[in-house]
Specification:
By secondary structure, this protein is of the alpha+beta class. Helices cover about 45% and strands about 10% of the residues. The longest helix has about 55 residues, at about 1125-1175. One of its GO terms (molecular function) is guanylate cyclase activity. It comes from Seminavis robusta.
Length: about 1300
């Protein structure tokens, strides 16, 4: 081992011996290193598998190969057959769907015969008229009915007739449209009204389209580029006004000159030239509904709505017009074209209702020769995909093509109407493709499923065929797994030699080394296994016990997770040290740690190694608790350990049975436990046997004999030693102040139970302990601030970066006026719960320092009270944190489905919304921090007498509580905390809600105001009575939660304020003692009318019965704190019972200590007064000892009570008068000194007898009776131990030759 691993020692022999011990332990390290379980398991598996023969293995492989080949072949055939069948089915279905689409597409021209026939009817009517038979003055009777039928048959959206009006007949046309022939308009409106198709247009669009709204027919007009109607002038060669329209819209389309529209002008030119029908190009508009300001969009939407019989939007699909010529005659060669019949058609309408409902996902690309437009047909519906080609390129091979049919439209005439696409601007055709949806419907995973099913059948056949082999293999696997698991467990629990023995037994039980192994394995007697004990005597061992002093009381104020955090963190460090020092860890029981050296392998310097390990553990204890105090709270760093070591023979082995483990037995173990239990906090106590081994190892200077003897049960009186081994590098002796004194500690909890109450007199300056309190409180509040910031971010709350968040009470108002019966909690927000855990919120360092500064300022504002001080505020905060963490927090992360959401909502209501609001947690911690700020240590009634102005301001209600609250907010509102407030609150609403919560909580700590107490009891009764609470809030669950949450928050702070009564007995005793001291101090100062000692015992019993126990029961009744409510109630009942039994004795003990303290104070006062008098009266007469002369002895005449001449020596260190050092080893008697009023025998006892005090009459210079004690260490006469902490002066005795100041001081 390298030398640098051991720290520096002044004695090189110590270093070498320690290294030698470590080296020897390393050589024998086989007993400490746990066996590689995986390697051992592998060896067992190889041993078992070696039993199989090569022939069986080959046969198994051959059968498996044949069956696998058969499985693959059959499965592949089934897959291919099924896959080809699906492909064929897809092709058939696709072809059928495509054929239907093509059929519908090609049938469009045939359907247009109904429209053309309407033109034939108009021409026929014109030829049959007797008057006004000349074109263009012709109107078709019953036009709306006829045109409606034509639209229904053809699928067109609209039909219109536009007459060709020469310029010479412009005025006549105007007279015609305003004459009797316009009666068709009213007839059309009436007919459409009966059908319910008149109300699909937007009134503003109607009004905008008219020039003369009051006329039946407007003047001939056209629309400019903005959609405004413009009157037509008689300057054109001819006009093309629209006359009869179906359906007839209220928008001004009648008498519109269509010649200005490109589609109509091209159609007119084509028809006049070729006398054939004309197919127009795509017509599209912006998608929208009938309210659109775009005339085309509004018209298309209105036409679609009329066809559907309900308001539907226009989706941007393409429309087109088919224009048919209307002739004045049927057969004449010179017939003239006198009008144009126009049909407006929606392409989408021809792709609807042509496929079965289950045929989905056929894409149709419509190509006009200039542009393309895509549709997807899903059953009866055709969905618009938009301009362009929207199909999957991978389906190009399935394309189906169809052209627009060119030919004759049958309209009832002999020749019909010809459509000549050669001279049209558009050459329509369609391309059809399958979509992914359509393809996947027929190309499923059924072949794969069927293939896997086939494989599964073959696998099952393989399993049946190889059943016997499978069963044998299964049994062998079970045995192998059990052996593997046993190996892993044994490796983690037992040393190597014990493991090997256990594994040997395991192999024998498995029958591995038997000729008939299977039979032996089945017939092994469990009784024979259990009758073979594993035990061994180790003659030279050292056993170590360590126990955390004060752990039980400390753990009663913490959460279970914090308790295990301490134990796990500490004992894991001990385990690392044990591995380094080659110490065998035996076990941990509760907070007790047990280890040993000298076993399972002998170690030469087992005592030296174990004591060095113990010292390291002591140092590690200090380091770990200091590090964890910020996390685990105040008092963690104050924990210490008692350690005990004893050396001797040990019996070690495995006690078979349930949960068997390696254990140590014997007197050595018991004695080591006694060494620990009777030791001092922070010390390592060793027995005389261990001390002897240390002396033999040259470590006698490590040993410090314990002054008193240890009385061990069953062993009598034992002489023990304290040990201080060499330090290891990297550690210092800065922790030595934590070590206990040489006197023994009463019990496990003395560090808390016997805490000196006079520490409260030290105040709250920035001591190391106070700084730790500030650090812990800062971290606690900082954690809540981070949660608040993260919560706001998850909810997307916009923070106010400009507000200073300052609040002042209105004039004449107090905090009491701000108290509300109900505080609104945050509502359940699913987004906040479903949101994944956000990255840690980073708080700027200057904000953290600002928060720390605020907590430090609060600490400085606390007074030097025994009870109502900063330490108690931290204790209350710790209880608040514990209760808040016990509330079940609902969560639906990471599966935010409906069931989890319902559960989270249920838990939100169950906890009344408290756990979902980080602001509430911060407000509770803040309130517990400041609730006793600037407390005077007196009751509110006394405070009203001493501070009448304050009482007047606060209206004699909760004076101390209101003052604390107002003082805290005055501190928080200072400009230096402006940035801190902005980070904490975020919004003004949050700030005001925080203020409201804090005021309610702080004022709830006034439990002695009868009126306020009655109101709180009434609110509790209403809140947790289902009927009363529902009536009060209108039976709204959120409001019920707010009422109950308000009451629960008040009871959290009330329970935390007196939580010491519901915690471990030593915690209760500590704070109960401090409260009694505080009240007694107030009584002695005339600030309390009755001495608390006269009523304390009965008062505490009544306090438990009337307040503490009912309060603990309420915590349980509200049902949100889990097992904490049971824990609080259990501790309250136990503390009440124990105080009822021991309370009077405890009160009397405190009273006696107070009297002793009073004597000390009087002596100090007398000393001060005497010194002042002596300084004044004997300035020039008394002789003082020069400071330089105090380092040596000086002589004076022998006093008359000494039998022989002797020197009296003034020692320099304590400046006291002592008997010569040579005479202190024996007893000697002397007569009563002349300054004592009665005879007395003064005896200087031997060193062993000097432990007790003896009494003598009170000297005349002492004002009150007191005990004089001969101290053991220097055999000097001192004032009682309680008074020895400071000096006291008295006049010079008459046996001194010159005036002198004799002084008794501490050592």
């Amino acid at each position: 081992m390298r030398r640098e691993r051991i720290g520096y020692s002044s004695n090189h022999d110590d270093l070498f011996m320690l290294e030698e011990g470590m080296s020897s332990s390393e050589e024998d390290s086989g007993g400490f290193e746990m066996m590689d379980s995986s390697r051992n398991c592998h060896s067992i598996q190889e041993e078992i598998s070696s039993k199989e023969t090569l022939a069986v293995l080959r046969l198994r492989q051959t059968v498996a190969l044949i069956l696998m080949l058969a499985t693959v072949t059959v499965s592949l055939l089934i897959y291919l057959i099924r896959k080809n069948g699906e492909a064929q089915e897809f092709q058939n279905q696709y072809d059928a769907a495509a054929d239907k689409i093509i059929e519908s597409y090609e049938d469009i021209i045939h359907k247009m015969g109904a429209i053309s026939g309407l033109g034939v009817a108009l021409a026929s009517h014109s030829m049959g008229q007797k008057t006004f038979s000349e074109w263009p003055f012709v109107s078709l009777p019953n036009f709306q009915v006829r045109a409606g039928n034509a639209r229904e048959l053809s699928g067109a959206l609209a039909v219109s007739i536009s007459h060709i009006v020469p310029r010479g007949e412009f005025n006549a046309w105007h007279e015609f449209v305003n004459g009797p022939d316009n009666a068709w308009i009213e007839e059309s409106y009436s007919y459409q009204e009966s059908l319910g198709t008149n109300d699909f247009e937007y009134p503003e669009n109607i009004e905008k389209s008219w020039i003369r709204r009051n006329d039946t027919v407007d003047v001939m007009h056209y629309f400019d580029e903005n959609g405004n109607p413009m009157a037509e002038e008689s300057s054109m060669h001819f006009y093309l006004p629209v006359w009869q329209v179906s359906p007839l819209l209220k928008t001004n389309l009648v008498n519109k000159n269509s010649i200005y529209e490109e589609d109509f002008s091209d159609a007119l030119a084509h028809i006049l030239k070729y006398k054939t029908a004309y197919v127009g190009r795509f017509q599209t508009a912006t998608p929208g509904d009938a309210t659109s300001s775009d005339p085309s969009t509004a018209r298309f939407a209105a036409l679609l709505s009329i066809r559907e019989g309900k308001q539907v939007p226009y989706l941007g699909e393409p429309m087109f017009n088919i224009h048919f010529p209307i002739f004045d005659q049927f057969a004449a060669k010179e017939r003239k074209i006198v009008a144009i019949m126009t049909s407006t058609v929606s392409w989408r309408s021809y792709f609807q209702n042509i496929l079965p409902r289950n045929a989905k996902g056929v894409v149709v690309v419509l190509d006009s020769g200039r542009e393309q437009f895509s549709f997807e047909i899903d059953g009866h519906e055709a969905r618009v995909l938009g301009l362009g080609t929207h199909y999957e390129p991978r389906y190009e091979k399935y394309r189906k093509h169809a052209d627009f049919t060119v030919g004759h439209v049958k309209d009832g005439t002999v020749n019909g109407i010809t459509i000549n696409s050669e001279h049209c601007h558009c050459n329509y055709h369609i391309d059809i493709y399958p979509s992914t949806t359509f393809y996947d419907e027929y190309n499923t995973n059924a072949p794969v499923v069927l293939t896997f099913a086939t494989v599964a059948i073959f696998v099952f056949m393989i399993a049946i065929f190889l059943l016997y082999d499978f069963l044998v293999e299964k049994r062998q696997t079970v045995v192998l797994n059990e052996a593997t698991q046993s190996t892993a467990i044994v490796s983690s629990l037992f040393p190597k030699n014990v493991r090997e023995r256990l594994m040997k037994e395991t192999r024998q039980n498995l029958g591995i080394r038997s000729k008939s192994g299977r039979r032996n394995f089945m017939n092994v007697s469990r009784t024979e296994m259990e009758c073979a004990p594993i035990a061994e005597l180790f003659p030279n061992c050292s056993v170590f016990f360590a126990d955390i002093a004060g752990f039980t009381a400390w753990s009663s104020t913490r959460e279970p997770s914090q308790v295990f955090m301490l134990l796990q963190g500490l004992y894991q460090e001990f385990d690392k040290l044990a591995k380094h020092w080659k110490v065998f860890k035996v076990e941990t029981i509760g907070d007790t740690y047990m280890a040993a050296t000298g076993l399972p392998q002998p170690q030469k310097n087992h005592a030296t190694i174990l004591v060095g390990y113990a010292r390291q553990c002591m140092l590690k204890m200090r380091e770990t608790t200091d590090k964890l105090e910020t996390t685990l709270g105040p008092g963690t760093a104050a924990l210490s350990m008692r350690m005990g070591v004893h050396s001797g023979p040990v019996t070690a082995g495995v006690l078979r049975g349930d949960r068997a483990r390696f254990q140590l037995f014997g007197d050595t173990v018991n004695t080591a436990s006694v060494m620990e239990s009777t030791g001092c906090c922070g010390m390592i106590q060793v027995s005389e046997a261990t001390a002897t081994l240390l002396r033999l190892a040259g470590k006698d200077y490590w040993l410090q004999p314990r002054q008193d003897m240890v009385n061990a049960k069953g062993k009598g009186v034992l002489r023990t030693f304290y040990v201080s081994p060499p330090l290891v590098s990297g550690f210092t002796n800065s922790w030595s102040g934590k070590l206990g004194s040489s006197t023994s500690i009463a019990d496990d909890h003395s560090s808390l139970g016997n805490m000196d109450w006079k520490e409260a007199e030290l105040g709250h300056s920035q001591t190391a302990e106070n700084a730790r309190f500030v650090d812990w409180m800062t971290e606690l509040l900082l954690a809540d601030v981070r949660k608040m910031v993260a919560h706001r971010r998850q909810l997307g709350v916009k923070e106010d970066r400009t507000s200073d968040f300052v609040y002042r009470l209105p004039d004449g108002k107090t905090c009491m006026d701000e108290v509300k019966d109900v505080i609104q909690m945050s509502t359940f927000n699913e987004a906040a719960h479903c949101a994944s855990d956000s990255s840690p919120v980073v708080i700027e360092p200057y904000i953290v320092e600002s928060l720390r500064g605020f907590v430090s300022d609060v600490a400085l504002l606390y007074r030097r009270n025994h009870f109502h001080g900063f330490e108690h505020a931290c204790h209350v905060t710790q209880s608040v944190s514990k209760l808040l963490h016990r509330i079940v927090k609902p969560s639906i992360h990471p599966l935010c489905d409906g069931s989890h959401r319902d559960f989270a909502l249920h838990m939100h209501d169950h906890t009344y919304g408290i756990c979902n609001d980080p602001l509430v947690a911060f407000a509770l911690s803040f309130s517990s921090l400041i609730h006793d700020l600037d407390h005077k240590g007196i009751s509110n009634a006394q405070l009203a007498k001493e501070a009448p102005v304050l009482a007047t301001i606060y209206k004699n209600k909760s004076i101390a509580e209101q003052h604390s609250c107002e003082l805290a907010f005055e501190l928080l509102m200072q400009d230096r905390y402006k940035d801190l407030r902005r980070v904490i609150f975020g919004t003004t609403e949050q700030f005001h809600r925080f203020y409201q919560i804090v005021v309610n909580i702080v004022l709830a700590t006034d439990i002695f105001d009868a009126e306020l107490k009655a109101k709180r009891e009434e609110r509790w009764a209403k809140a947790f009575s289902e009927t009363d609470c529902s009536i009060a809030v209108g039976n709204v669950q959120g409001a019920v939660n707010d009422v109950r949450a308000t009451v629960v928050l008040e009871h959290i702070i009330q329970a935390s304020d007196v939580s010491h009564c519901m915690q471990h007995w030593h915690v209760y005793q500590k704070w109960n003692r401090r409260l009694l001291m505080e009240m007694h101090k107030a009584y002695k100062a005339g600030r309390m009318g009755i001495d608390p000692f006269t009523f304390w015992y009965k008062g505490e019993i009544g306090f438990f019965d009337n307040y503490i126990i009912p309060l603990a029961k309420k915590l349980k009744e509200c049902g949100v704190f889990g097992v904490s409510s049971d824990e609080y109630l259990d501790y309250a009942l136990k503390n009440r019972a124990e105080f009822a039994e021991r309370g009077q004795e405890i009160v009397e003990s405190i009273k006696r200590e107070l009297e002793a303290e009073s004597i000390k104070r009087e002596l100090e006062a007398l000393e001060t007064a005497t010194v002042a008098t002596m300084d004044e009266a004997h300035m020039n007469t008394r002789r003082t000892i020069p400071e330089q002369a105090l380092g040596s002895s000086w002589a004076h005449p022998t006093p008359p009570y000494l039998p022989t001449p002797c020197l009296a020596r003034v020692a320099s260190e304590p400046v006291r008068r002592t008997i010569p050092e040579q005479a202190l080893g024996s007893s000697w008697a002397h007569p009563t000194p002349p300054y004592l009023p009665t005879p007395c025998l003064a005896q200087a006892a031997s060193e062993q007898a000097l432990e007790s005090s003896w009494a003598h009459p009170t000297p005349p210079y002492l004002p009150t009776p007191c005990l004089a004690r001969v101290a053991s260490e220097h055999a000097r006469r001192t004032i009682p131990e309680q008074a020895v902490r400071s000096g006291c002066a008295y006049p010079t005795p008459p046996h001194l030759p010159t005036p002198c100041l004799a002084r008794v001081e501490t050592f």
